[in-house]
Amino acid sequence: MSASNPTLAVLGFRRQIFYHLHFWAFIAVAPLVLVQWSQGHVLLATLLVLFCLNAILVVVFLRWRQTYLFKGRLFAILAAVCAVYSTAINGYAGLYWSYPAIAAIFFLLSLREASVSNVVFIAAMAGVSYARFDEADFWRIVFSLSLTGIFVMVFAWLVGRLQAELTRLATTDPLTGCLNRSQLADILNSKIQTRERYERVSSLILIDLDHFKKVNDRWGHVAGDRVLREAAIRLKRRLRDSDQLFRIGGEEFMVVLPETRQKDAESLAYQLLTTISAGPFQEDIQVTASAGVTEVIKGETWSTWLNRADQALYTAKARGRNRLVTVRGTLDEVPSTYDELAGAS
Fold it and tell me: What integer best gives the mean pLDDT of the chain?
């Protein structure tokens, strides 16, 4: 997987958050094991030992296996149980730990899981506080815990929205809304791995708008941008939900077709070219396109697969444009394996 993939970068940052929360929680809680044991609170000391063991295991698995063990759920359960029980036997000394526990739960679990967990946690803390403290303190504790939960929930929600929006901006082309090159290698590699492991074939279509420079020169770049946006819309209408449309160059698009043989990809490519040339853009701008089609070959790299499609596209344009060319086999076989499915303009 490419380290430059924005989605993987976000996941990497999330792993760092999980790592540091568990690590520093262990540092803070470990001394309390001895404190509670010395005070005769054996059950609480045992629960804190389990909490520390969970933190150590999570840190080890994140550090050496890049795996988030238990997905934060065991942390949430043990933290809540320890805080509730400590409040019951230690009073305010246990209550203070409930506030960082609420915050940590929102960063370790999904927003839905964290919200449900903290509602249960705060309800349990309210029950213990009602029995342990006077009425005035009970209401202060309930309101302060509830406000802490609400504030952290809103913050966690905003952070999640920000991460999703940053990922979207980093992985999509701002003009057309298509995917950009940032995930190209990872997606093509995933299709190659599917071919290797499960014998499931994928195909690739490269599409280039013909003579697009003339559109910019005659009608201006604003009109050219509108043509690109409309072309992307026309292409998307013909694709399945599982297909992925990229804009990989100025006027060049790429379609990744999972579970698709070359023959079916050729048929779809012809439909896509017909869709682009079927009607004018912006009333009087007529545009055609050329395409190269190829199927993934077992044992090849993603760059070889893409280069073969690019060679087919290059040949389609060299033969007069407004046509598609397909290629089967390796690049060395290209001259003898072209199939033209659309006539020259």
Answer: 90
For residues 317 and 339, the model is more confident at 317
Tens of pLDDT, residue by residue over 131-181, are: 999 999 999 999 999 999 999 999 999 988 988 888 888 889 999 999 998
Structural domains of the chain, with CATH: 6-171 (no CATH), 181-340 (3.30.70.270)
In whole angstroms, what is the distance from residue 6 CA to residue 18 CA?
19
Residue with tokens 């992925």: 244
191 CB-near residues (< 8 Å, 6+ apart) = 202, 256, 258, 296
Tokens of 134: 């006077």
**55-93: burial string, b at 16+ Cβ within 10 Å, e else:** beebbebbeeeeebbeebebbbbbbbbbbbbbbbbbeee
Write down the pTM of the prediction. Answer: 0.71
Q: Does residue 224 contact residue 215 with C-beta atoms inside 8 Å?
A: yes
- 85's tokens: 């029980």
Contact at 8 Å (CB) between 297 and 322?
no
AA letter at 115: S
> CB of 311 within 8 A of CB of 338?
no
**Closest to 265 in 3D by CA, of 280, 278, 275, 255:** 255
What is the mean predicted confidence (pLDDT) over 241-250?
Answer: 94
